[in-house]
């Protein structure tokens, strides 16, 4: 019984978490997002690293970070998990206007 609980906790810790917020800053190797804590309702700034394996999506289309044209104040969803140590696995942005 104890073994099952330990394995379950290890699996749960590796799950991806989605952070919703607005872009506060963007650099070639990281992005800062203003997120609101669900419990305290306080905004906090969170940095996420951008690695070679980080996917960037504008709408449903994968784009290079340089082509994404991320703007300060833009709504963003950042996917990250504990195993990535603060590196974004995916950055999702709204589709561009035509």
Description:
Mean pLDDT is 85; it is low at 1-12. The chain contains two helices and six strands. The chain is α+β, with helices and mostly antiparallel strands. Helix content is 16%, strand content 53%. It starts with a helix and ends in a 5-residue tail after the last strand. The chain has a five-stranded mixed β-barrel with strand order 1-2-3-6-5.
Short descriptors:
6 strands; alpha+beta; 98 residues; 2 helices; 16% helix; five-stranded mixed β-barrel
Précis, in short:
By secondary structure, this protein is α+β, with helices and mostly antiparallel strands. The protein has helices at 2-13, 65-68; strands at 16-27, 30-36, 43-58, 61-63, 75-81, 87-93. It has a five-stranded mixed barrel with strand order 1-2-3-6-5.
What portion of the residues fall into strands of 2 or more residues? over 45%
Fraction in helix: 10-25%
Helix run count: 2
How confident is the prediction overall: mean pLDDT?
A: 85
| Strand arrangement, major sheet | 1-2-3-6-5
Stretches with pLDDT under 50, minimum 5 residues: 1-12
| Anisotropy-based shape | globular
Query: Could you spell the SSE succession in H and E letters?
Result: HEEEEHEE
Strand count, sense and barrel status of the largest sheet are: 5 strands, mixed, barrel
- Structural class of the helix and strand makeup? alpha+beta
The number of strands is 6
The rounded Rg comes to: 15 Å
Report the end-to-end length measured between terminal Cα atoms.
57 Å
